[in-house]
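Hi R.,

Quick one: here's the Coronin sequence you asked about.
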Amino acid sequence: MSWRPQYRSSKFRNVYGKAASREHCFDGIPITKNVHDNHFCAVNARFLAIVTESAGGGSFLVIPLEQTGRIEPNYPKVCGHQGNVLDIKWNPFIENIIASCSEDTSVRIWEIPEGGLKRNMTEAVLELYGHSRRVGLIEWHPTTNNILFSAGYDYKVLIWNLDIGEPVKMIDCHTDVILCVSFNTDGSLLATTCKDKKLRVVEPRSGRVLQEASCKNHRVNRVVFLGSTKRLLTTGVSRWNTRQIALWDQEDLSMPLIEEEIDGLSGLLFPFYDADTHMLYLAGKGDGNIRYYEISSEKPYLSYLMEFRSPAPQKGLGVMPKHGLDVSACEVFRFYKLITLKGLIEPISMIVPRRSETYQEDIYPMTPGTEPALTPDEWLSGVNRDPILMSLKEGYKRNSKIVFKAPVREKKSVVVNGIDLLENVPPRTENELLRMFFRQQDEIRRLKDELSQKDIRIRQLQLELKNFRNSPKNN
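And here's the predicted structure, written out as tokens:
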């Protein structure tokens, strides 16, 4: 009997990527050259935000989505941070509220005016101080309004209640820098990856570690919950330094369900999961390819679909929320690709080829909308609730009516779980000590150069004075 490949029926096997034309891109943007492993980009149905290269502090641009084309060099910026901005995230329920974190140890909440910025914005509506070192990651809770998570280089994750502007919980189970955080569908579990080569599943309100995996063969970098399938997917590096992905059961992290090597490139692999279509996208930092797979609940769990290829390398990728997609074009996912070399932001649409232009209900199920399911007090008291769903057929243009109100408070010491966070500083990492050493060496070299230049100038003046005294006119 002849061997035949197994045929697998899927409505997404012909999904293809379509890059926007040049006039629909955002051009002339000084994208940050920071090497931190974040996307430096955030997008929602109204605005695109990009971290930019700037002197004397950190800044980012906020551009209305319809304002495509070339961006003027003097375009207004959000520029209130004293250090480089490391991460930005839009509030999922209030479309003009964005959070940012920085090397200046602060997290700030900004309110963008209707129609975008008309002048530079330097005053945040809320400044949050609780980390003793720089803050590398921020993440909004997926179902609760005004709950924000921040992860700093002090190895702590702080949970902020923005109704009162204070940290209300602290997760202190990590022994090194936190690389990535991800929530499950209802926000009752938090998965983290850490530089200590461990993958953890944490109950965020208590800070209790439910599951922990020591990844020796698969060094994890990024993690994402695969919707409500009770699965986790991580990207990392194998012991032979090849890029690799692994699938895990969230209730048993003793061994991965599958491990699959991707390629031998060195750039970080960013995973993106679409729970509505059960599709996984893998985008490599520094290369232009986006691979996509379909996730199933049975073996082989992971089925390769296709690959979008581009010669332009990507620094990071922003993802459009579902309610911002073009359903008339059968668009199921949209990336905003940062191309640093060209100063360009390029939208890439993932499209299911269909002949009919009517609404396709089979590829657009009910999806999490713009209404929160819980208040901060409800979630903190232990209530879990699935996100409020919306139909993209009628409701995807609906604007949220929630308004952000910043609390009025005085600056004081930040005490959580009986610990003053601003005083409890952990020891510096080896990388930070090396950076400090090289910075000091550069400063010593600069001072030596200045001294040698002054020494040369003094000798020149002495020679000029000697020549002046020996000249015939003076005799």
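Residues 413-464 form one domain.

Cheers,
M.
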